[in-house]
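Data availability (excerpt). All sequences and predicted token strings are deposited with the supplementary files. A representative entry, Excinuclease ABC subunit C, is shown inline so that the format can be inspected without opening the archive.
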Amino acid sequence: MPFYCYLVECADGSYYAGWTTDPQRRARQHNLGRGARYTRMHGPVRLVYVEEQSDRSEAMRRERAIKKLSHAQKKALAQSFTPSVE
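Structure token line:
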């Protein structure tokens, strides 16, 4: 099972990083108010970055690394992302 690290942009321009097995489903959960408390307060959200990881621990490690980035660095990461067409 693949694991993903993701970044969403909130309505106020802030970013939230997390990990999941299904980024699209998780973004919907955030927008329905069933995600993190942060996104409930700052939503709705838009999925702006997804990165596949080999396992859950790698996804969690990458999430922590992204959370430590500055706002400008998160914005650059989001702008560099090209979604894959499935």
